[in-house]
Design brief:
single chain, 279 residues, mainly beta, Porin, 13-stranded antiparallel sheet, two-stranded antiparallel ribbon, 5 helices
Length: 279
């Protein structure tokens, strides 16, 4: 089991926006999870500015990293007293891994106030079973280490996953990070939603197919807008894959606090690749 704050920590290695992070194998799923890398990039950006509220984050994934150190460089694109646009490059062994752009704003801004985003009418996490309680006793040894970083309570459980019937490409589940559920650092706490938006498009897409899918679909990019501090331990992620065509798989996702507030929204584009042989 990993810890999101510990495993995304960045260490400054200069006064010019350069830092370094070490990737943890606890976030492995087809290699280091893309959302996990994105959180590291967001934290690197946050370490270079006194502004403390992430507003948006977009990145392109350019390479698959090893579980080793990565180097980050943050470059200011536009900086004012109220907002900063920052670019982040992540490299490993001189190979590009990720390029990101993020807006960060002050937390004392005044402006319009409205909320026309009704939360999904679903059961709360307290009335649902955890995924591990539903799985056969020997199933967890085949489960990627990545999923041990959460308590997950899905709204709909498909017991015979390998014999499932095609259905709607829609996935809803409650998540609580382990061993720490919320974080004082606003960039780590925003990272809770960022990681889910990047991860759950594929679980939504595969529900439209039978189990013998000959492809995987790593993320080409992810883009997230942050709407407020999550504050609650449990987060509901509502992910959909509206279309897959010509080797591309699209997804959109919303993340809700357990008190019904929309805290983040965004989506990703994925690229199909042949699935690696089992075993």
């Amino acid at each position: 089991m990993g810890d999101l704050e510990t495993d995304t920590a960045v260490e400054p290695i200069g006064e010019d926006g350069r830092s370094r992070a070490r990737l943890s194998r606890d976030w492995e799923i087809w290699g280091p999870n893309g959302g996990y890398l994105a959180v590291i990039a967001l934290r690197a950006a946050g370490a270079t500015t006194p502004l403390r509220r992430p507003a948006s984050f977009t990145c392109h994934f350019l390479g698959v990293a090893d579980f080793d150190a990565v180097d980050l460089e943050v470059r200011p694109l536009r900086v004012s007293k109220r907002a900063a646009a920052l670019a982040v490059s992540m490299r490993q062994h001189d190979r590009p891994i990720l390029e990101a752009v993020t807006w960060i704003v002050g937390d004392d801004a005044e402006g319009l106030e409205h909320d026309a985003a009704p939360s999904p009418d679903v059961e709360g996490p307290d009335g649902l079973l955890d995924t591990r309680a539903r799985m056969p006793a020997d199933a967890e040894q085949h489960y990627p280490a990545f999923w041990s970083n959460f308590e997950e309570r899905p709204l709909r459980w498909i017991g015979n996953w390998l014999e499932r019937e095609p259905g709607e490409p829609h996935f809803q589940s409650w998540f609580r990070y382990q061993p720490t559920s919320t974080f004082d650092d606003p960039f780590v706490d925003a990272g809770r939603a960022l990681l889910l938006v990047d991860t759950l498009g594929w679980p939504a897409a595969v529900r439209a197919y039978r189990a013998d899918i000959p492809f995987i679909a790593p993320s080409l990019d992810v883009s997230v807008r942050f709407h407020g501090v999550p504050e609650t331990e449990w987060l509901l992620c509502d992910a959909r894959s509206p279309v897959a065509r010509d080797g591309l798989v699209a997804s959109s996702a919303s993340v809700w606090a357990s008190d019904g507030r929309l805290v983040a929204s965004g989506g990703q584009q994925m690229l199909c690749r042949p699935a690696p042989p089992l075993g």
